[in-house]
Amino acid sequence: MEVIHSNLVGWGLGLRREHIPDILAADRGSLPVTWFEIITENYLGIGGKQCNEIAKIRSLYPMTFHGVSLSLGSIDPIDVNYLKALKSLAHVLQPTIISDHLSWTRYQNRTSFDLLPVPYTEESLAHIARRIDQVQSYLGRSICIENPSAYVAYKNRDYTEGQFLQEIVRRTGCGLILDINNLYVNQANLGFNAVETLLSINPSTIAYMHIAGHEIHPDLTDVRVDTHGVRVNSEVEELYKVALSVCGPTPIMLERDDNIPALEILCDEVRELKKLAREVSKEFRVEREELPLDLGVICRGLEPIHAAFFNLLDRKSFEISELVTQNGMASVASGIKVYHDAYHARLREALRGTFPCLAAVIGWEHFGTICNDYISLTQFSNFNIREIGRDLPEYLYKRHTNYLSSCENTLLGDVARAEWAFVNLYDAPDCTSWKSEEVLTEFSSEDISDLVFKFRPHQLLNLSFPVMPILDLFLEQGVIPPPPDQGHSYFLIVREDPSGEILRYKISGDEYLFFNGLSQGRPLYEAASSIPPEQVVSELLKLFRWGVITGVSVT
After folding, report:
1. Which of 50, 325, 431, 485 has CA atoms 20 to 30 A from the CA of 292?
2. Could you confirm whether domain 11-60+76-279 is CATH 3.20.20.150?
3. H or E stretch at 222
């Protein structure tokens, strides 16, 4: 296994899609940052324009991966599909460091889309260490883990936060991403001692630091929430100065995930942090000392904790309150409410981002109600939050008759289906199309009827309402026209590479049946039963011309 903790130098910045054009347009030496960190899940299994852009940035700057879905503390099996996608992306982009959080997100094949806290017990530590070993063995390299923020602290513990982190590192050989903001948030919310945590950690195991801003919860003034939505707080800056004194010069990265400003504003903040680092007195050093092991009650197991958290997310019970305690400013009730509310709010916002036209057609209040019902009835297992909208169109067709008429259900389902088609194709994997029908000459006349065609990622839509004009007007002018009269329409939608442009072709009902049969792997003779024999060749030529066909074989 290749052991990589850090060969980074200087200052990093969290790479956000909004900033990619400016980064590519800038002269490399003009930016105050020397490397970028990406959120791993944003680029797993994707292709198209964003994939090409991230490869260009990687050719110019060192890059690190920072994930949120390894779920190292989970008692579910490690997600092998996630690991495969991670290893494949790492092979392409060659990151300097791969990291994730000391947390868990999965239980019984469901995902929380939140970084849930792990208990600092021996049972938990041994379990996480085994999983880190498995991940590192599969990837063939060491990883790093980040100290997370939390809003509740468990009653049972065998280690302090710093001791737990350092023991994980000792047993597995992994490195640390030391998040200064999380140290402060945990100190304020849970009563953890941030300086004590710093003193517990061997500086040589720190790959780099994170720094970001946090906010006081708008409804729960005793809770500080790790939002990454504001500039770095003054209290966090002071703790950063202490961290530099304890750990020495260490690469650091500025995070910003919400209320994202222009690139130049973040660059100015990086320059201010650089100035702050230079001001730290070289004479000021915090002396280290051995800290006693703080033994607690023997752990009663991880299963009750995981079950209680997911019952909380499902709004079934608040039994998690029996397993946690208050040591800092945040009350148990407030800490629980943060997790309870965040799950639904995060998913609602993700659905609104995927279906902005649908939300505008319905109205945000009504859309939020529909989202809450959909979320409560759906168990999400995919780590990719973009995928949570996949079943929403079908839900609207079948489930929402208690809110709307059957006709309105169908209209909204069509709008959602059309929006999902475009979103799904935008990040679809790249592939090479066969744009020449000459490939057919390679097969004998006897084989032609048995040909099977392989399609690139595409969407075939059978819509009961003409909703495309609604989407076009909304995207172009932000206007929602009056509901159209019912009338069937059919489309084939595909992404053209390398431009990344989403192309839309209006087709007939017979063409829809023919293309759909071919896309499902049916042989030509079977799929062609929906169209006149004399049209078969011309319809195949359309598919080649549109760049839909990626392979041909004989059954």
Report:
1. 325
2. yes
3. none
The amino acid at 277: A
Q: Determine the Cα–Cα distance for residues 306 and 107; give it in Å rounded to an integer.
A: 7
Give yes or no for a contact between 355 and 419, defined as CB atoms under 8 angstroms apart: yes
| Residue 463 in tokens | 């819509």
- Indicate the Cα dihedral angle 474, 477, 483, 487, nearest 10°: -70
Q: Which amino acid is at 316?
A: K
Closest by CA to 241, choosing from 269, 270, 211, 200, is 211
In this prediction, residues 100-113 reach a mean pLDDT of 95
Q: Which helix (H) or strand (E) holds 190?
A: helix 180-190
Token couple for 201: 């950690």
Query: What is the three-class DSSP state of 228?
Result: coil
What pLDDT is attached to residue 147?
96
Q: Which H/E stretch holds residue 412?
A: helix 406-426
Rounded CA separation 52/544 (Å): 24
pLDDT in tens, 459-518: 999 999 999 999 999 989 988 888 888 899 999 999 988 788 899 999 999 999 999 999
pLDDT in tens, 242-270: 999 999 889 999 999 999 999 999 999 99
State the pLDDT at residue 431.
83
Instruction: Please state the φ and ψ torsions of residue 309, each to the nearest 5 degrees.
Output: -65, -45
Whole-number pLDDT of residue 297: 30
Residue closest to 115 by CA, chosen among 157, 72, 65, 168? 72
Distance CA 75, CA 302 (A): 7
Q: How far apart are CA 496 and CA 540, in angstroms?
A: 18
Q: Domain map of the chain by residue range?
A: 11-60+76-279, 355-427, 429-554
Q: How far is CA 471 from the centre of its chain?
A: 26
Q: At 366, which helix (H) or strand (E)?
A: helix 364-377
| Number of alpha carbons in the 13 Å side-chain half-sphere of residue 455 | 21
8 Å CB contact between 286 and 242? yes
**Distances from the Cα of 8 to the Cα of 15, 67, 223, 392, 437, angstroms:** 16, 18, 34, 43, 50
Whole-number average pLDDT of the chain: 89
SS3 label, residue 65: strand
Cα–Cα distance between 7 and 97 in angstroms, integer? 9
Q: Residue 60 belongs to what H/E stretch? A: helix 48-60
